[in-house]
Give the backbone structure.
Amino acid sequence: MEDFKALKEKILKSKSLYEDPHFPADSRSLYFRSESAPSIQWKRPREISYNAKFLVHGASYHDMQQGALGNCWFIAGAVTLAASNWKLFQRVVPLDQDFDNDYAGIFRFNFWQYGEWKEVVVDDRLPTRHGQLIYAANLKETNEFWCPLLEKAYAKLYSCYEAIDGGRIHHALVDMTGGISELIQMQGGISLDKLQTTLMSCKKMNTLMGGSIFNRPGSSGRESKRMNGLYEGHAYSIVDIREIDQEGKRTTLLRLRNPWGRGEWNGPWSDGSPEWRHLHHSDSMTIDHAKIPNGEFWISLEDFQEQYDELEMCHLYPDALSSEIASVEKKKQWSVQEFYGSWIRGVTSGGPFTSFTSKLFWKNPQYKVHLDKADKPISVIVNLMEVSDKQVRDENDVDIGFVIFKLQEGREPVRLSRDNVYEFKPRLEKTSGMFWAYRERTLRFELEPSTYIIVPCTFKASMDADFYLRVMAEEQHEVEPVDTPTGPIGDYVDAANNSLEKLFHDQAGSDERVDAIGLRHVLSELNKGGKSE
């Protein structure tokens, strides 16, 4: 496929404007199924604003407001990146684009997909109604268009606009950074002291953050307003975190932003609340709460934990954030190792851990993690992602998780199995907990120096799916895939995983989706007729 530069030069020579054949200006790009959209007109930015600009006065939290699409999670992620890390933002949104010189109606953006950066090229025809953008827009600088074009490229990445109607902040952040997500449950999932420590530590690290509120049973509509001004079924960016002195008592405040650019918390520390009158003078000089834009507000850590259901975080690491940026920002780096794999029906899809004598479970892929050279407990984050297709997400949701076993010193089998667990006596160390039908599972652990086995698995045996595994540690570590189990087609599994990895690497930068499912299907078909477990 032609790259962006060659394609743009071709369009310029033809003296025409680019029309993307893979993402046409019709209902096929709006919906999963081709529905009519008679009231929608596709217009180029110059047809919407006579002074159309790609970027006006830099990028900030206020540039992007949510439109008629339920993608507050994407908007929150995009503006968090725009305001938090300018150099990384430019990696996603190349700034050498505009509507002035060499304009050809073609734009490009970059997203991270399972270990590779993927360039997505789009034309600049945007869906409008009565001459106004119906999705993301800058409501203040109406002639700025990086935000709706970025949203269009993201919709193309997942096949259509409807595909990004509903999601999670950390999914968007991972897709725009290559970082590793982490979810923390607010109610019953973490103590207030631990939450405070986590937030302040993450502020010093390569971490982007947001908060989500779930719909309560009986809520009317997807995004229902509470009496306190917050919305259920909604996601907010965390803009800032401050520790202040309130009459001799240290208080942690979080500054949040509603992607709508309106709708704020009206409880303690909100605009005009009496708490601000008791703020220490030194803090009042640095927190000018009266001048924050509409849609932004301060909330105490206690109220954040009570009102929000999840803290969503995206930890950046060296591949997503260059060492130059890291040294400037003086933020922490992590050592990361990554692997591609598959759960193949009848071969490597053994389902959940039920007991040490489960024959099926031990057929799952296994990865050996060496932390035995450390002299103290190490923080380790395990990130397991299903290689998913949003077009079929509702039909083929796969609940994924993982189990971690600790091996005895000096007793390391080639591969754990039902036949040798009593000989080697591995200890069940950690699990990912309840299975979720989400794209990824990520958890942080403190592990003692030792050797461990990570076993990625699905909630049900014989599920066909591909996965991408990353193991992230504070110190250098070694992870190695364990030999695949023997069986009717066991000899093909390693070659299959290598082919899967090659597919991802070869098609990075292409507009074509990786057909990993086809590879898996071949292996499953080969195994038909073999002895079932």
Q: What stands out?
A: DSSP finds 13 helices and 20 strands in the chain. Residues 242 and 286 are 10 Å apart (CA to CA).
